[in-house]
């Protein structure tokens, strides 16, 4: 099974939408965005995520493809404001359960780091992750992210509060 990591094309938006909605449904603790809210998003919004990535317009979305089917994704977003344009945020990381534990998540994050390093503007990537999501924390640590803090009771999901771990990866000059 050949793995390809690349930005999705506009015409692949429905595939991306299907996988993203599935991941929001089955991994509610992994994302601040909820399945119910995303269900109402109009088609143009889904397409705009891909369009903005293709234009490197404050985001890059990468997908993992196996035989032309999307099996995972990660997005980095940033703002071009003068004081913060050196910081990228890693969001929307997921791999379809049938394809987990095969190195795909790691490849996605490594490719995102490589893409960001190709722009001279970035000095760091940051992210937050639910403190009990040890799989994701292990993955981020395996590519060099470090835990730098914790926010308590940041997410409220199905009647329970969850803490977030903050992580960052500083690019060495
Ligand atoms: C977290 C996630 C993206 C990992 O993807 P993956 O493709 O399975 O990860 P990889 O196979 O590339 O594993 C890379 C490293 O992650 C860690 N890891 C992944 N799955 C793990 C597990 N089940 N138990 C412990 N560590 C795990 C390990 O350190 C692993 O390195 P190793 O295989 O050398 O031990 C995947 O589990 C997922 O989609 N989870 C649900 C969504 C989610 O939590 N997203 C993160 C939001 S912050």
What does this structure look like?
- The protein has helices spanning 13-26, 35-39, 43-54, 104-117, 134-142; strands at residues 3-6, 59-66, 69-77, 87-95, 124-130, 146-157, 160-170.
- With 173 residues, the protein is an alpha+beta fold.
- 31% of the residues lie in helices and 35% in strands.
- The protein has one domain: 3-Layer(aba) Sandwich (Aminopeptidase), CATH 3.40.630.
- α1 crosses α3 (43-54).
- α4 links the parallel β4 and β5.
- The chain has a 7-stranded mixed β-sheet, with helices on both faces.
- The N and C termini lie far apart (36 Å).
- The mean pLDDT is 96.
- The longest helix is centred in the first third of the chain and has 14 residues, at 13-26.
- It contains 5 helices and 7 strands.
- The site of coenzyme A (COA) has 19 residues, from β4, α4 and α5.
Structure described in brief:
The chain has 173 residues and is of the alpha+beta class. It is built from five helices and seven strands; from the N terminus they run βαααβββαβαββ. Strands 1-2-3-4-5-7-6 form a seven-stranded mixed beta sheet, with helices on both faces.
Structural class: alpha+beta
What's the CATH H-level homologous superfamily?
Gcn5-related N-acetyltransferase (GNAT)
Q: If strands are numbered along the chain, what order do they take across the biggest sheet?
A: 1-2-3-4-5-7-6
Q: What level of helicity do the residues show? A: 25-40%
Tally of separate helices: 5
Q: Report the radius of gyration as a whole number of Å.
A: 16 Å
CATH topology: Aminopeptidase
Query: In percent, how much strand structure appears in the residues?
Result: 25-35%
| Number of E-state strands | 7
State mean pLDDT (0 to 100 scale): 96
């Amino acid at each position: 099974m050949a793995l390809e990591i690349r930005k999705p094309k506009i015409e692949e938006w429905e595939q991306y939408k299907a996988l993203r909605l599935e991941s929001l449904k089955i991994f509610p603790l992994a994302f601040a965005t909820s399945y119910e809210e995303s269900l109402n998003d109009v088609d143009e919004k889904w397409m705009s995520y891909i369009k903005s990535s293709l234009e490197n317009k404050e985001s890059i979305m990468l997908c993992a493809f196996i035989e032309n089917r999307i099996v995972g994704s990660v997005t980095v977003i940033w703002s071009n404001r003068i004081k913060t344009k050196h910081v990228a945020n890693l969001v929307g990381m997921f791999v379809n359960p049938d394809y987990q534990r095969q190195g795909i998540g790691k490849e996605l994050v490594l490719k995102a780091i490589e893409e960001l390093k190709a722009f001279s503007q970035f000095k760091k990537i940051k992210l937050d992750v639910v403190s009990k999501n040890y799989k994701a924390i292990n993955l981020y640590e395996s590519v060099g992210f470090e835990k730098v803090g914790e926010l308590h009771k940041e997410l409220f999901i199905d009647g329970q509060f969850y803490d977030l771990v903050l992580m960052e990866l500083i690019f060495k000059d």
